[in-house]
Design a protein that fits this description.
This protein is an all-alpha fold and 261 residues long. It has one domain. It has helices at 3-23, 26-55, 60-92, 95-100, 108-135, 143-170, 174-190, 203-211, 214-226, 233-258. The protein starts with a helix and ends with a helix. The relative contact order is 0.14. Belongs to the ABC-2 integral membrane protein family. It holds the Pfam family ABC2_membrane.
Length: 261
């Protein structure tokens, strides 16, 4: 099979996923609804109190600047969740087994799910950014910082979407896939620096928060958008993205080859 044929097969599978997004817009709504709800809740309920701890002024806007990058990364995680459910649905209904019998390029089906998931995640991230700007987020970083932050977000979206696809293939039911990805999209962001600095956490939780993947990704995006020193957080963020992507790709490809409905 030639490279052109493989690209054509992958393009067809991407088109299939984009049609699903158009027919089932609730996937996009679900990807952005929870992060927006968390954003509004934390800004208007806890903003003054947490803002006082961050700047000493009790300003809600100071917390908006701190919170927005964390919620943006949380949106990326939430955007990856529907990919697991979509893949698990295809598996449980036997569609993937049918694709295996067709002369399709190896991995084209998975590439379609991944690209479709990244496209959905980018749309959700743009919507969340617009909400943050409306609320009062005013990033200090320049155009290059915005591009660098967007690159990190895309890399994280790519990695998490591959992991979600692998989870969807491994899960026995779409409900199980949804439950498994909830840990990634909800629990891990709360146990990171997305909502409060890790220095304010208890010792055991702080240790976990500092060494899990969300914290360096959030820290990198936050430093770039607020024009503060980045340090080595970008290195750790990209390293985590690479590890997650490789694990998700290898696990997903193996499950795709061996598992049946």
């Amino acid at each position: 099979m030639t490279l052109a044929t493989a690209a054509q097969d992958s393009s067809a599978m991407v088109g299939r996923e984009l049609r699903h997004l158009r027919r089932y817009p609730l996937f996009l709504v679900a990807s952005v609804a929870l992060p927006v709800l968390m954003f509004v809740l934390f800004v208007y309920v806890f903003g003054d109190y947490v803002g006082a701890g961050l700047s000493g002024s009790g300003s809600t806007l100071s917390y908006v600047g701190f919170l927005t990058p964390g919620i943006l990364v949380m949106t990326v995680a939430a955007g990856a969740l529907p990919s697991a459910v979509s893949v698990s649905t295809d598996m449980s209904e036997g569609i993937i087994d049918r694709f295996r019998t067709m002369p399709l390029a190896r991995g084209a089906v998975l590439i379609g799910h991944v690209v479709g998931g990244i496209f959905r995640t980018v749309l959700a991230a743009i919507l969340l950014t617009l909400v943050a700007l409306f609320v009062g987020f005013r990033p200090a970083g320049g155009p290059l910082a915005w591009l660098a932050a967007a690159g990190i977000i895309l890399a994280f979206a790519f990695a998490l979407t591959w992991l979600a696809v692998a989870i969807g293939l491994a899960a026995k039911t779409p409900t199980g896939a949804n439950s498994m990805t909830q840990i990634i999209s909800t629990v891990l962001p709360f146990l990171s620096s997305a909502f409060v600095p890790t220095e304010s956490m208890a010792v055991g939780i702080r240790w976990f928060a500092e060494y899990q993947p969300f914290t360096p990704v959030v820290g990198s995006v936050r430093a770039l958008l607020t024009d503060t020193p980045v340090g080595n957080s970008v290195v750790f963020a990209l390293a985590w993205c690479a590890v997650i992507a490789v694990v998700g790709y290898a696990w997903g490809l193996r499950s795709f080859r061996t598992k049946t409905a």
